[in-house]
Amino acid sequence: xxxxxxxxxxxxxxxxxxxxxxxxxxxxxxxxxxxxxxxxxxxxxxxxxxxxxxxxxxxxxxxxxxxxxxxxxxxxxxxxxxxxxxxxxxxxxxxxxxxxxxxxxxxxxxxxxxxxxxxxxxxxxxxxxxxxxxxxxxxxxxxxxxxxxxxxxxxxxxxxxxxxxxxxxxxxxxxxxxxxxxxxxxxxxxxxxxxx
Length: 196
Fold this sequence. Notes:
The protein has helices at residues 13-34, 54-64, 141-156, 176-193, and strands at 68-73, 78-83, 94-102, 107-115, 121-127, 130-136, 160-165, 168-172. With 196 residues, the chain is an alpha+beta fold. It has one domain (54-192). The strands form 2 sheets. A 4-stranded antiparallel beta sheet has the order 1-2-3-4. Strands 6-5-7-8 form a 4-stranded antiparallel beta sheet, covered by helices on one side. The longest helix is centred in the first third of the chain and has 22 residues, at 13-34. The N and C termini lie far apart (68 Å).
C-alpha cells in the first residue's frame, strides 16, 4: 500500500537538528567576521574628501614636515606648511603650494598661494607632448584640489611652467630643486588624504 506523502511532516526532528546546527554556526561566523571588517559603511553622509586619519597625519608631522616651514594660525586652529624648496625672497612672481592641516576637523587642504602676483592667475604648461593653459581663480578647498589634480600630470613629466604677468609669459619653477619640491608636496598631500 502506497504511503500518503502529503501527510509526511516537512520539518522532521532530524532536519530541525541540522538547521539548528548550521543556523547557529552561520550566525556565529557572521558575528565573528564582523570584528575583522575594517571597511565599514559610511552612512553619515559626510564628505570625507579632505579627511586625514591619525597615522597619516603623524607620518607627515614626524617625518615629512621637516621639509616645510610651519605657520601656526591659532585663530583658525590650522597649521600651514610651505615647502622650503619653493620659498624665495625674490620679487619674481610665482605660485606656492601650501598644505593646510585643520586640527578641528581632522582635515587637510591644499592652497595655491600667489607670490608677487594677484588672482586670477594664468599658467601655461609646455612639454614634449604639447602645451596647456590653466586659468586659476581664488576659490574653495574643492577648487584648489581640482587644480592640483589638473596640474599634477604636467608636474610629473617636468613640463616647463610659465605665468602670465602684464601680458608676458614668465618662467616659474625653473630649477630642479623647485620641480622636486612640487613633486614632494603633491606626494605628501596625496598621502595625507589616503584613508586605507
